[in-house]
Design goal:
Layout lengths: L1 H16 L1 E2 L13 E2 L5 E2 L11 H7 L15 H6 L44 E3 L5 E3 L9 E7 L4 H10 L12 H8 L3 E7 L10 H10 L7 E3 L4 H6 L3 E2 L1 E6 L5 E3 L3 H9 L2
Parallel strand pairs: 6-7, 7-8
Antiparallel strand pairs: 1-9, 2-3, 4-5, 6-10, 10-11
Length: 270
């Protein structure tokens, strides 16, 4: 009963405070047998199953018993295959430490076609991050149970409020205490991406806007993606922003399309 009342309260506050929308991996793998640089035979054993054989790890100076030698969240084999240093935790595959997934085989669509519906699969599309790197959304697959898609614009006051809340700059969101929701994001139980489609002047957002947004509202683990082509917001099609949608990170299907209250309630109940 309390939850239902809360939902109604939250829904009404979100509706009242929203903005009207005015318009519109890199490779992977590694490892293999062969001879090593010191002439010893590599029998192909990969004890820690990180894609590098024990002999290769011996050459590289990585730990054959630890898939992530430097503890930056990326496996040694993935780091080598993607030209980051497996012994330097300041040098990862993606700036920001965002998840990496080298298996995009199940993805059929790279483009956003039509409009999002419940059960539709998220395209394996790339967006530029606030660091100027291309990031395929399917890298998030398997990194948590769910991912929130937050479609926002710089000119939208409530979008800024939501970002400030997520960055722990304000205690409440739209007058509600939703700590359990954001703590699930901070703890990595849920992934969150913010897709910015317009800047403060209502023009298409670019990487500078994404960088400024991240500087103003730094939230660890949350990529700020440049949606200046309005691909994401065009696909989701919210009549108002901020708009939250929810994706199942196992199937990559959209569970909730443009229902901010429902998504926040889902995050509260995890
Ligand atoms: Ca290994
Ligand atoms: Ca290793
Ligand atoms: Ca690593
Ligand atoms: Ca590294």
């Amino acid at each position: 009963m309390r939850l239902r009342l809360f939902l109604v309260l939250l829904l009404s506050t979100v509706m009242a405070s929203g903005c009207v929308v005015r318009s519109g991996g890199r490779g992977g793998g590694g490892g293999g047998g062969g001879d090593t640089s010191d002439g010893t035979v590599d029998d192909g054993t990969d004890t820690d199953e990180d894609g590098l054989t024990d002999a290769e790890e011996d050459d590289l100076g990585t730990d054959p018993d630890d898939p992530d030698t430097d503890g930056d969240g990326y496996d040694d084999g993935d780091e080598v295959a993607n030209d980051s240093d497996p012994t330097d935790n300041e040098d990862g595959i993606f700036r920001g430490g965002y998840p990496f997934n080298d298996d995009l085989e199940d993805c059929d669509d790279e483009d956003f076609l039509g409009s999002a519906g419940e059960g539709d699969q998220l395209p394996c599309a790339e967006f530029e991050t606030q660091f100027g790197e291309d990031y395929n959304l399917w890298n998030m697959r398997g990194s948590a149970a769910f991912m929130v898609i937050d479609t926002s614009a710089v000119w939208c006051g409530p979008c800024n409020s939501m970002a400030a809340w997520l960055a722990d700059q304000t205690p409440d969101l739209f007058g509600q205490n939703l700590d359990a929701a954001r703590e699930n994001v901070w703890d990595g139980n849920v992934r969150w991406i913010t897709a910015l489609y317009e800047n403060g002047a209502g023009q298409p957002a670019d990487v500078d806007d994404a960088e400024s947004w991240d500087d103003a509202y730094p939230a660890e683990g949350v990529p700020v993606l440049v949606d200046g082509d309005s691909e994401m917001i065009g696909w989701i099609g919210p009549p108002g922003i901020p708009s939250l949608s929810l994706v199942d990170l196992d199937t990559m299907e959209v569970l909730i399309v443009d229902d901010t209250s429902a998504v926040l309630n889902a995050l509260l109940s995890l």
